Amino acid sequence: MQQQYCRVINLGMKRFAGSLIAAALLASCGERTAPSAVDVCSADAVRADVVAVLAEVTRATRAKDIDAYMRLVPEESVIDDTSGELVDRDQLRANVLRDWAIIPETLRLEHVVGDVTMNGCDEAVVMVDQTWERTMLRPDNEPGTDRILTTQRHREIWRRTANGWRGFEIEELGGEIFVNGVRYGAN
């Protein structure tokens, strides 16, 4: 039974390089396998970190926890939105708070991580498709809410930091907007 358990841990260690818990459990199995630089620098290892960070972004957004949200955004981050405006970290914080003020509820926020292209061991280009469905207050103080669905494709630059991989640059490549199920226009 212990050998089977150790094989499962070893398999998990290979899939999720860098996990200290798995390394400690694996060491208790009598195997001495340290993650190699290739494992830590692999697209799969970056993808796992990106997925975990984006899950934290989703939790912070649902809870409208600006401090948790901003802890995930590096000081040097920049967003190039579809209007051509460059948004720095301070403006991002203001924009997020402004948006959350008119969003009573996030119904669904999904990030699908696509291609990961490594630029050495400390930087990666990550393609992310985002789908965000939420209720929003109507404009001009009209009573009620609308159900808004937006899709957006991002080309993101992620870098290795002391806190793991973080997104430093986001280029929005476009998507769609639906208001109450009716296509509104390009995003």
Major β-sheet annotation: 8 strands, mixed
Structural class assignment: alpha+beta
Distance between the termini: 54 Å
CATH architecture descriptor name of the domain at 69-186 = Roll
Share of helix among residues? 25-40%
Per CATH, what is the topology of the domain at 69-186? Answer: Nuclear Transport Factor 2, Chain: A
Spell out the helices and strands N to C.
HHHHHEEHEEEEEE
- Report mean pLDDT, rounded to a whole number: 81
| Share in β-strands | 35-45%
Count of helix runs: 6
Q: Give the C-alpha Rg.
A: 20 Å
Instruction: Tally the beta strands.
Output: 8
What sort of overall outline do the alpha carbons produce when their principal axes are compared? globular
- Report the top-level CATH class of the domain at 69-186: Alpha Beta
Unreliable stretches (pLDDT < 50, length at least 5) are: 1-38
Oligomer: single chain
Strand and helix map with partners:
Layout: H1 2-15, H2 20-27, H3 37-40, H4 43-63, H5 66-71, E1 78-80, E2 86-88, H6 89-101, E3 105-118, E4 123-137, E5 145-161, E6 164-174, E7 176-179, E8 182-186
Parallel strand pairs: 1-6
Antiparallel strand pairs: 1-2, 3-4, 4-5, 5-6, 5-7, 7-8
Helix pairs in contact: 1-2
Question: What does it look like?
Answer:
It is a single chain. By secondary structure, this protein is of the alpha+beta class. It has a domain at 69-186: Nuclear Transport Factor 2, Chain: A, CATH 3.10.450. 35% of the residues lie in helices and 39% in strands. It has helices at 2-15, 20-27, 37-40, 43-63, 66-71, 89-101; strands at 78-80, 86-88, 105-118, 123-137, 145-161, 164-174, 176-179, 182-186. Mean pLDDT is 81; it is low at 1-38.
